[in-house]
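Data availability (excerpt). All sequences and predicted token strings are deposited with the supplementary files. A representative entry, MFS transporter, is shown inline so that the format can be inspected without opening the archive.
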Amino acid sequence: MSPRPSHSWFLALVVFTVVCQSTYNAVRVLISYRVIELGGGAGVLGLVAASYSLMPLLLAIAIGRVVDRGYTSAVMWAGTALTILPIALAAWSPNIGLLLLANMALGLGQILTTVTGQALIPQNFAAEDLGRRFGNLTIGVSVGQLIGLPLVGFIAGSGSEASPRTQLAMWTMCALAVLAVPFLLWTMRRPRTGVHRSRAEARATAQSPWAILGIRGMKPAIFASMSTLAAVDIMTAYLPLVGENHGIAVQYVTLLITVRTISSIVCRAFMGVLAARFGNLPVLAASSTIAGASVVLVPVLTLAFSGMPLFAALAVLMAIGGIGFGLTQPLTMTWVSTIAHPDNRGAVLSIRLAGNRLSQVVIPSLASAVAGFTPVGVVFVLTGVMLLIAGGSTELHRRRRGGSASR
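Structure token line:
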């Protein structure tokens, strides 16, 4: 009998994900505060938020093709470098223009590490194990956010309320990002699952983006995913502004996002049980609906409360909304991976991420325009409604397939 293969590399991948993800959202929150410090308003915040997704949107499919050809390791190394260096640039940046450039580069680093991390799972595990493995990987994402946001909140909040220490917090996150390197080296020790394929070989089995989008179930899966990521971006970018307008300090704003993250971790730990009991698609439809309702209710609460009472009310809302945000991403990863051809999984996962980035460019850009002449609460309402529509789209697809099947 052959020895059972070791999956210790997967633990290293999860820890690598924890370290990288501890930097992404935390640094983006810090960039929002730095933009405010440099005189940028709601419109500029929206443009900076959108810039994060521009390079991933343009390059996502090309990245997926490279991964499908077997160059996962090289892409992961590039993504790690583009995680560390842009944070250093953001920490040093004296103006909004350089912050914008750093934000764009950091977004590219995130999609490089994200595509490769996700692609390693269907490359190395059986289909029936994908849901659990994607759940574990996204728990790593949430744990990283749980580490990063409170840390930067504590460091930035150690300054005066009028002048948070955002640059010191950025340098701290840069140092933390360097810790990803040894875990990447460990991940690279995984068993090799294939050889490098030439462009001609890859082209022979490659499906076009339109053919991939034509696969039954692909559109509602991508729409559910992109709606969630856009909503998370809006909350990350605009909760600091809500805090500024209603007397909630930076450390409490980061704590709100942390509450949402903890809720996501808890629900992801039970994702396998929920999916087995109710089916992937019913759980996904419910998740999008819960998340959408929580986003819509943010401006409702700001009308009724201010200061610490608003913080308490938002904390409860974040705990509920975190359930929806937490389940949507691993469920859509599982969905698109199981309906994709093995030779195109990297491209499929990249197209899913490209959809995410499209929403992260378009929605914050629209939010920037809307926030220029309407109350900021309108931005939350429009984003929440999109999530509610995504929940309805998933449920409609499920019913058309007849019943509560997982696909």
